[in-house]
């Protein structure tokens, strides 16, 4: 079969077939009387083998080795091709992500594009100072996609940079809440904490609703940050979690302050005081928790708390009794 016929049947151009010939990959078995290349059925089968191997990403040199080296074993080469393909996919995915984020920033011109590219680069810089400057810029005039801010805040380890990123994210509204909600389910405890702390700084009803849902999160640290934020927002649903924090000694001082803030109305004060008294009952909690609960009760106004403190001033636990008596003295002096 002549080269033109082979090209039509195989889909490989005549120019490429000549290139294969020059490399020694496929040398036509014969020549016509006029000197034209003439391919045998075996030559054509080899051409199809070459094209099959090229479709896997092999170079022509690797194809020649695979076909002609009797000692060639494909496993090592295939493993290398898998590695190269993964690296290429990762690079292309990274490029696609950057392009999507630039598009989401809705640049008005190339100057905006360049600013966004520089900011995205700096958010991933090794230097904490560069990342912080980028975070502050993101809170200013340079538009940054919320997705990029969420990714940065969930991965940031430097506390100063993290604070700047949370501020920038809060200024962008509640668009990042869905992504932060995904962060709450991360297997990494530090990511879950960063997510809830970011949600806590976002104002508005949607963030409050998400924080309410977070009160059922299995991570006590996450529940605690949600409860503290809800306490600042005046949400009574946080009370049971705040009392748990006092019992467990997890940010107990902040939790007690939040309980005091929530006890601003008489009905709320009596309800919170009653819940604290229930937990103070002997055997309900570890003895070490009772002084903390007594101290938390001290900051709750109203008659229910005062009566409970009067009873606790005679408690058999000396620390509890002294704490209650001291607090009663202060309350009476007011």
Automatic annotation (TrEMBL):
The record's keywords, sorted A to Z, are: DNA-binding
Which InterPro entries does this entry report, sorted A to Z?
A: ARM-like, ARM-type_fold, DNA-bd_dom_put_sf, MerR-type_HTH_dom, MerR_fam, PBS_lyase_HEAT
Where in this chain does the record put each HTH merR-type domain?
1-69
Q: Which Pfam families does the annotation name?
A: HEAT_2 (PF13646), MerR_1 (PF13411)
This chain's protein is named Transcriptional regulator
Query: Which species is this UniProt entry from?
Result: Streptosporangium pseudovulgare
